[in-house]
Amino acid sequence: MIPHLPKGDFRFIALDVETANGDSASICQIGLAFVHHGGAIDTWASFVDPLMPFAPFNTELHGIGAGTVRNAPNFAEVFTVLRDTLAAHPLVQHSRFDEKAMAAACRIHKLPKPNFQWIDSVAVARRAWPELKGNGGHGLASLKERLGLSFKHHDAGEDARAAAEVILHAEAVFSAKGGAIRPAIPAFQLKLPL
């Protein structure tokens, strides 16, 4: 059964996926973080039957295996529920992997390629905290320590929430610097530097 999506008008939605194996189309969990205009975040996640075998490395990384997704919906079933909501909001991903995985899963399930608005929170983090280059980097594990985030890494819902929090923390940095600010994407109401 697919969990009900939060309702409302959101500033943006952060998305994260976990995969069953080295094939980016093998999505076995999708997580979303719905960011309200006031900054509150609602988190949603669903396991997905990837209809592919699990690689031991992936299962060890995120703890999801064939038993976890038994009776879970497949990607086409989940995507049908998510598509309109995702299309109506800018999407944040932490690296470009999630966008590529979603496109690959659509391709193998013979679904139209989604035409979503994406922003990479890694790129935003690089602008907000350039001093982390070569000093821990801009991955979620490093940012977790730097920003004091609390989340379970490699859980799609938790990682999506962390990506959303990275954006909110970056907005505070850019506002504090007092420089010129503009939306990163016209419809995306983020305060990011020019």
Automatic annotation (TrEMBL):
Coiled coil location: none
A single Gene Ontology CC term: cytosol
Domain (Exonuclease): residue spans on this chain: 11-176
GO biological process, one term: DNA metabolic process
Name of the protein this chain belongs to: 3'-5' exonuclease
Organism: Harenicola maris
PANTHER family linked: DNA POLYMERASE III SUBUNIT EPSILON (PTHR30231), EXONUCLEASE (PTHR30231:SF42)
Alphabetically ordered keywords of this record: Exonuclease, Hydrolase, Nuclease
InterPro entries associated with the record: Ribonucl_H, RNaseH-like_sf, RNaseH_sf
The keyword Hydrolase is assigned to this record: yes
